[in-house]
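Justification of resources, computational component.

The compute hours requested in this renewal are based largely on the per-chain cost of generating structure records like the one below. Each record pairs the submitted sequence with a full structure-token output. That output is archived, and it is also reused by downstream analysis tasks.
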Amino acid sequence: MEIQKGRVVGMHYTLRNEEGEIIDTSEGREPLMFLQGFGNIIPGLESELEGKQLGDALDVVVEPENGYGVRHEQLIQKVPREAFQVDELQVGMQFQAQTEQGPVPIRVVEIEGQEVTIDGNHELAGVRLHFSVSIESVRDASEEELAHGHVH
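The structure output for this chain reads:
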């Protein structure tokens, strides 16, 4: 069965950065299950999987524009420490900032005294992604999965 829109795909994957360091992997876990054509995975990988079949293995390079986006320097800002309502603030903590465009995920990247640098870019924004993928299963989605836009 071929991967196409409306099919449920199970895949094992290993994601590496340009330096070959593993960022994420499904090794030792169940395959990642997703509904093809519904934006459940990044666009660059989803488009490369179209037409593949059970048992296929492939290496895919996804440019930032088709992955987690390019980095936007304007999403990096310095804010006062008192803007955070937590007792202990640490680098790496993630929050939701309320903006005019709605909630935006941010993470703390630096703390200098009472000044905190936050970044609204995805951690993998601007990163060329290297996926090694093996297709473990392909099946038609149920009507409920199609209606909800994700795997049940």
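The domain at 73-119 is CATH 2.40.10.330 (Thrombin, subunit H). Residues 43-49 form the longest helix (7 residues).
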